[in-house]
Write a structure and sequence with these properties.
Bound molecules: alpha-D-glucopyranose
CATH class of the largest domain: Alpha Beta
Strand content: 5-15%
Structural class: alpha+beta
CATH superfamily of the largest domain: Periplasmic binding protein-like II
């Protein structure tokens, strides 16, 4: 055999041995890896979440977290998760849950009750409102990851330039925006940026206007819609006639959180309503043209009324159809630990769900606003906590959207119809209560 042929032969033998080694030893090891499927929404800080998951895997060798990333929109993400639950999909172990879902998931028998894992003593370490939102018929179905509450961001530089204090009432906000718009004469500048697309965020925004006018979406005791009450309608009319018509750009009707935030960070909006993470994003010079020029205050109220912030936030739940609830719990525990929540607060500016972190010197140094926001979080207004929240929200979304999108919409008639539809959806609950 020539030298060349002998080398080739030896090379082939080596390759065969290598393949045999992989097939016999490495591949079974990979098989032995336990997979945990985590269905999560698309975060604006993906890198941070990925690093945290990688750290979990490092701590639990042999466990691979398979992430399925759904849409950012709560409404669209709800469709994805509920479709899997309806199909009793055993592939999904852990899922992200908006604060408005636990009652529905519990009543449908989709989410695993976590009482055996999540003790009362542990629950006490969390803010009360999200714990309540995760509790249904006396059992707990999710562990809060972070909390949200609506806040008002504003261009500190522009308000100072025009000698204006941060607005305390909605009419004052409109007045100030009009003064600044008239004097700046910048064709790209708009007065207000928020979430007015037809989806869950619209309900959050509109509820803040309604509540801060002394109105309500429903009467929880009587299980009746209050959309048709004068205060509620007055607030909706104000949004249509003053916010949208006078100071916002019509594009606002298509904005969810990311688009509305982008307008603000590009320096094209004077006022911006968003959740707490917008502070970090708008002050980060790598992604914002207005870094250092941003102020934050509680949302305004109507004259003589109190400001209202919608309670938001996300939790981790475990699917009842998971084949590995014990491991799923280890993952949930890691993701909601004080250590992880601190990382998330520091790196993304999201409000921790654990109370102690509001006294954490490192967090307060980086985000001093959390000190005053703690009160906003504890006073934030929950959306109706009921298993029929989704049908109610669909009615609310359709109503608010048609009421504000058209300049001459018949708000009385629309409110009456939406109220009737809500009452019909609530009949289901009333019947249950009476039984
Ligand atoms: C935020 C809130 C959530 C709310 C959603 C609406 O993600 O945390 O509760 O439903 O915004 O867009």
């Amino acid at each position: 055999m020539s030298l060349k042929a002998s080398c080739r032969w030896r090379g082939a033998r080596l390759r065969t041995i290598l393949i045999l080694f992989i097939v016999l030893f490495i591949a079974p090891l990979a098989e032995a890896q336990t997979k945990l499927r985590f269905v999560t929404w698309r975060s604006e800080a993906e890198r941070v979440w990925e690093q945290i998951i990688a750290d979990f895997e490092a701590r639990y060798p042999g466990v691979k977290v398979v992430q399925e990333v759904g849409p950012h929109s709560s409404t669209e993400f709800h469709d994805l998760v509920t479709q899997k639950l309806r199909n009793r999909d055993p592939e999904m172990d852990v899922f992200f849950m908006d604060v408005i879902w636990p009652a529905e998931f519990a009543a449908a028998n989709w989410a695993l009750p976590l009482d055996a894992f999540f003790t009362a003593a542990e629950r006490n370490l969390f803010l009360e409102a999200p714990i309540q939102a995760n509790t249904y018929d006396g059992r707990i179905y999710g562990v809060p990851m972070f909390v949200d509450a609506g806040m008002l961001y504003y261009r500190k530089d522009l308000l100072e330039k025009h000698n204006l204090p941060p607005p305390r009432t909605w009419p004052e906000l409109v007045r100030q925006a009009r003064i600044i718009l008239a004097q700046e004469r910048d064709p790209y500048l708009t007065g207000y940026s928020a979430q007015f697309k037809q989806y869950e965020g619209l309900v959050c925004n509109m509820m803040e206007f309604v509540l801060s006018n002394g109105g309500a979406l429903w009467n929880e005791q009587r299980l009746q819609s209050t959309l048709d009450d004068a205060k509620a309608k007055e607030a909706v009319r104000f949004v249509r006639d003053q916010i949208i018509r006078l100071i916002a750009n019509r594009g606002i009707l298509a904005y969810q959180e990311p688009e509305s935030l982008a307008l603000f960070t590009q320096g094209k909006a004077i006022f911006h309503r968003n959740w707490p993470y917008a502070w970090e994003a708008s002050n980060d010079p790598r992604q914002s043209k207005v870094a250092g020029k941003v102020g934050i205050v509680p949302l305004p109220a109507f004259p003589g009324q109190k400001s209202a912030a919608t309670l938001g936030g996300w939790q981790l739940g475990i699917s009842r159809f998971s084949r590995n609830p014990q491991l799923a719990w280890q993952f949930v525990q890691f993701m909601t630990s004080g250590e992880t929540q601190k990382r998330i607060a520091l790196e993304t500016g999201r409000g921790p769900a654990r109370k102690a972190l509001y006294h954490d010197p490192e967090i307060l140094k980086k985000s001093p606003q959390f000190q005053s926001q703690y009160e906003t979080f504890t006073l934030a207004a929950p959306r109706p906590r009921t298993p029929v929240y989704l049908p109610l929200s669909n009615i609310l979304q359709r109503y608010f959207s048609s009421a504000i999108a058209v300049a001459d919409s018949d708000i009385d008639q629309l409110a009456r119809a939406a109220s009737r539809d809500m009452d019909r959806a609530l009949d289901l609950l009333r019947d249950r209560r009476q039984r």
